[in-house]
Specification:
Oligomer: single chain
Structural class: mainly beta
Distance between the termini: 55 Å
Shape: globular
Largest sheet: 20 strands, parallel
Number of helices: 2
Number of strands: 41
Length: about 525
């Protein structure tokens, strides 16, 4: 059966009336408290000593905040499950923030049934909601957002783990014409569910917008990210930044064209790897619309079928690739209909587009492909082979700036793939009295000098050897000889001096590079 039909059926089964919200007098925005261990629903919820016990009751009974303001609902550490007297779903009320004690500390467990967190079935203007610091597990859906007709839902979800759901980790849908859903995800991990992040539109003139940053969609039984824009005149989109979409059973990402306009899916600096089907499966629709999918600075590797598969009748899909690695997939680029339109600066293993628009086909030299470590080694052809001037603020999968001079030619430019090569980096976070471990990757047997500063790194200062970023107190600290494999590990014991706590410790290396002495990137960390 078509997955869209399954999702429609799930939506009908889960559409239950939302209970009437209880309001008491004039509402004032403020803080409320839920303690699943020591709370009591006879309390008022205004402090930890007056905490409520049931999160669901709190989501139903607390008064609405004043217009334009938000209540914060603090939830203490503990297990919220049917076995501990809790019930679900918890309703995502307008103007509410739910803040748990942290991932793994505040746990909502559905006990094998029920949706855990859902948008209320109330018609009317859009609802705004936030949640953070929670683990959701063991229910039907983790988060379910399919607003009632004539409404919409806007949510910000941060620092969540959603796992082991019978259905989808996050299900978002628009079921009536003119409605909107907007969800912003940051540091959310969805794993071992049916689908990870699912967005479905059933009608026309709608907007379904999903943005995910620094998220993970792992080991789901269907697809990591699924986007079906459906009806005509649709204006929504999915944007993925610095996300891991890995080891899902059907596909990493699956997106469709629609029947009325473009429906863009964009991924930046993402790892799409080791999925049992396609990495990106872009499928056209049945009408005149052109769906689109674009991957920029992504690593698409070791997917069992195609790394990127583009298909669809009536030319209803377009795929663009920029500065991506497609390597080790069953078929790196599978484009039977010629729907891949713009490919540049890419390393594609099967040779598609090689020699055109600065595309090439060469072993990217991953650090440890067998262990799924897709960082680049010294000498990789992907180092400094990307954009000459990456967008301001662009960062790689690990958060590193995108203009590192990785090949030590004294000119920084972007790398191809999701991981920017950094010649110098901390192997572990340094602490007073502990061991300092730095790794330097450079030409084998090259000589280098490590420089040290007790100030944070600053803006680049141009020198004949490239950009220098250490503070005014910088001093040459230690000579280093790079090993024959292109790696040197520096280990030093830091003094156990309490006065060092909280101070920055920064390093930069001057390396005898291929074009002469060149500065590496600078690294900094705060001592603890």
């Amino acid at each position: 059966m078509d997955r869209s039909a399954l999702l429609r059926g799930a939506a009908r089964r889960l559409a239950v009336p939302f209970a009437l919200l209880l309001c008491a007098g004039v509402a004032h925005a403020g803080d409320f408290y839920v303690d699943p261990v020591n709370g009591d629903d006879a309390n008022g919820g205004t402090s930890w000593s007056d905490a409520l016990r049931s999160l669901r009751n709190a989501s139903l009974s607390l008064p609405d905040p004043p217009a334009g303001e938000q209540h914060t609902l603090h939830v203490a550490e503990g297990l919220l499950a049917p076995s501990t007297g809790q019930s679900f779903p918890v309703y995502a009320r307008h103007g509410f923030r739910i803040r748990g004690a942290g991932v793994g500390r505040t746990v909502l467990d559905g006990g094998g049934s029920g949706t855990l967190l859902r948008a209320p079935d109330l018609p009317g203007p859009g609802l705004s909601f936030e949640a953070s610091g929670l683990t959701l597990r063991g229910g039907h859906h983790g988060v379910y957002a399919a607003p009632a007709p004539g409404g919409g839902w806007s949510a910000v979800l941060t620092d969540l783990v959603i796992e082991d759901m019978q259905l989808d980790g996050v299900y978002t849908a628009i079921q009536e014409t003119g409605d909107t859903v907007y969800v912003d995800f940051e540091r959310v991990r969805v794993q071992r569910c049916l689908g990870g992040l699912v967005g479905v539109n059933f009608e026309s003139h709608n907007a379904l917008t999903l943005n995910a940053r620094d998220c993970e969609f792992l080991e789901n039984r269907d697809t990591g990210v699924y986007f079906d824009p459906g009806g005509s005149s649709f204006t929504g989109s999915v944007t993925l930044e610095r996300c891991r979409i890995e080891r899902n059973r059907v596909a990493g990402i699956q997106t469709f064209g629609g029947s009325g306009c473009c429906h863009p899916l964009e991924a930046f600096d993402c790892s799409i790897s080791s999925n049992r089907g396609h990495g990106l499966w872009a499928r056209g629709g049945l009408g005149p619309a052109v769906g689109s999918a674009a991957l920029t600075r992504c690593t698409v590797v070791d997917n069992a079928l195609a790394g990127v598969r583009a298909e669809g009748p009536f030319d209803t899909m377009r795929v663009d690739l920029n500065a991506c690695i497609l390597w080790g997939n069953g078929d790196d680029l599978d484009d039977p209909g010629g729907l891949v339109c713009c490919v540049e600066l890419c390393d594609i293993g099967d040779g598609d587009f090689a020699g055109i628009a600065r595309n090439f086909s060469a072993d990217p030299l991953f650090v440890d492909r067998a262990d799924r470590d897709y960082r680049l080694r010294w000498g990789s052809p992907c180092i400094d082979a990307g954009e000459l001037h990456p967008p301001v603020g662009a960062r790689d999968l690990y958060g590193a700036p995108r203009d590192v001079d990785g090949d030590l030619d004294r000119q920084g430019r972007g790398d191809v793939g999701a991981n920017e090569f950094r010649p110098l980096q901390y192997a572990t976070a340094p602490g007073i009295g502990g061991e300092l471990v730095l790794e330097l990757r450079a030409p084998p047997l090259a000589s280098a000098t490590l420089w040290r500063s007790f100030l944070p790194t600053g803006p680049p200062v141009a020198t004949p050897h490239g950009a220098f970023r250490l503070g005014a107190d910088a001093r040459a600290w230690l000579p280093v000889l790079v090993g024959p494999g292109g790696l040197s590990t520096v280990r030093r014991r830091l003094p156990d001096l309490p006065g060092l706590a909280g101070r920055p410790l920064s390093f930069q290396a001057l390396v005898d590079g291929p074009a002469g002495p060149a500065w590496t990137n600078a690294v900094t960390a705060t001592l603890d």
